[in-house]
Design goal:
324 residues; Tetracycline Repressor, domain 2
Length: 324
């Protein structure tokens, strides 16, 4: 019989998953690009403090996830060795850890701004909705993907609010809705691919349903259709954002498509990294595609291309005084 250990309690906070908070950075970049009073250097302290807050709130959510998923993890071919399911964690202390991480994370967020504190409260509450019965959207087909992926736009708002706090701590100005929706659906795309890879890896529909209740409804065809839907929705909303705010970003579309295609291809690998996104750094092709895409999008965010805007201008103009 295994005994609880400090190492196991640290493990359920999943600090190795903090890499996912890279999705905060585009929110910071967007704020610097769009907000007229944004100062990148002045924003550095609130961004660092805010990132610490996001990491602690995420670890609080990971902790409750580990606690409540333990009975199901014991049915998984690899996750049965996790700290809680293998008996290496004190459940009482784990619940205390869950609340302590939330409290410290919220305190740091409030030190940055009320808007960041509200965003972190929403991020924590979504972790509760996703994991805790009787709601537990994790068990509901399609809602599992949609609810978990709400964390994506929340991270975008978090990054935005960190930069905003440097110029006006009391402001509640939100990023464009089209970008938030795009960010949400691209998160759904990644999460649906994770579900698809998990389903294929388990290989047995009845065993898959015992491990994750939503798998009782899913099959490969339904998951593939949902992946296509989420990809299309994310790019449609991204296009709406670009046409309104930054036309130059149209040039990044082929690179975004390459990243999405490479990511999708990984789902067909055995023990695929898309099932454990914290391990994606081990995929050199994906990392190279992401780096090139990120550099290009950053440059296109700040470099004006008048000739490109001229080329993309409508080809048929209305005559003066003409009918609409």
């Amino acid at each position: 019989m295994s005994r609880p250990s400090l190492r196991a309690h640290l493990a359920i906070a999943r600090a190795d998953h903090w890499v996912k908070n890279v999705f905060v950075l585009p929110g910071c970049l967007l704020a610097v690009a769009i907000l007229p009073a944004a100062d990148a250097l002045a924003a550095l302290p609130p961004v660092l403090l805010g990132l610490a807050s996001v990491c602690l709130i995420a670890s609080s959510n990971y902790t409750i996830n580990e606690i409540l998923d333990a009975p199901f993890d014991r049915l998984h071919p690899t996750k049965h060795t996790r700290p809680v399911s293998s008996g290496r964690v004190s459940i009482r202390l784990a619940y205390a850890q869950w609340l302590l991480l939330m409290a410290v994370g919220m305190a740091l967020a409030w030190a940055v701004s009320p808007m960041l504190a509200a965003t972190m409260a929403a991020l924590w509450l979504m972790g509760c909705v996703y994991n805790i019965p009787p709601v537990r959207t994790k068990d509901l087909p399609y809602l599992d993907v949609l609810s978990e992926s709400v964390n994506n736009p929340l991270r975008l708002v978090a990054g935005w609010s960190m930069v905003l706090a440097a110029s006006d701590r009391s402001s509640w100005l939100l990023p464009p809705a089209s970008l938030l929706l795009s960010y949400w659906f691209v998160g759904c795309y990644f999460m649906a691919i994770k579900r698809f890879a998990e389903f294929r890896e388990i290989g047995d529909p009845s065993r898959a349903a015992a491990y994750r209740r939503s798998f009782a409804h899913y099959n490969e065809q339904r998951l593939l259709v949902s992946i296509i839907f989420h990809a299309a929705a994310s790019m449609l909303f991204f296009g709406a954002f670009i046409m309104r705010y930054r036309l130059e970003l149209v040039l990044s579309f082929p690179l975004v498509a390459v990243v999405m295609a490479v990511y999708f291809k990984l789902a067909y690998q055995r023990d695929s990294a898309v099932q454990a996104p914290e391990k994606l750094y081990r995929e050199p092709t994906l990392m190279a595609a992401c780096l090139v895409c990120a550099v290009a999008m950053t440059a296109l965010t700040f470099i004006d291309l008048p000739w490109f805007r001229s080329v993309m201008a409508p080809g048929i103009a209305r005559p003066p005084g003409g009918a609409p």
